[in-house]
User: Fold Zn-dependent protease from Levilactobacillus acidifarinae DSM 19394 = JCM 15949.
Amino acid sequence: MFAKIIKQIAIVSATCALAFTTLGGSVNAAENAKTPTWGAWKTTTITYKTDVSSNYYKGVWKNAVKSWNKVGVVELVPAKSGAKADITLTSSNSLKTKGDDLAGYTNYSYYQKGGDDNQIVSATSTLNKKLLTKYNYTKTQRTNVATHEIGHALGLSHSKSEASVMYASERYASIDQQDKVALQQAYNN
Assistant:
């Protein structure tokens, strides 16, 4: 039986104000990198609610949810009216951590079981509307940031590969094969 300790932690998605700035390192080495995982939900059917008033951002989150559902490992379904959702998808005009502006951020709670086998029990993913507008992110790029944040909510960590949607400062990549494999491993499919 795992500990009944729920830890609040925040994944700081380094999808920051300068998201178009690449991190140092060799592209060839990064191409061989794998997307790491840190935990998973108890079931592969995970509920979500979109808590934004803007139809534009509802569409961004909807497209990101569709992207993960296409992978075929988990099924993200809207929470029933009045029911608590596993994942809340939202937006804000400001996201800062340690003084840095972030394009996206995911906060979650989990039962600590050890290693990368933690059980996620809730998550909230947020997009920074002001920053995404300031740096002229297209709707596709905003969807990629939203997809990245949902990836954290599903238990994925940052990848070293610029081809991965889970790359720390990526707005150009969508889900690739390493992300699919990582999700399959996290959910033992």
Notes: Residues 1-31 have pLDDT under 50 and may be disordered. The first strand starts at residue 6 and ends at 11. The beta strands are 6-11, 39-41, 45-51, 75-78, 87-92, 96-97, 100-101, 104-111, 118-128.
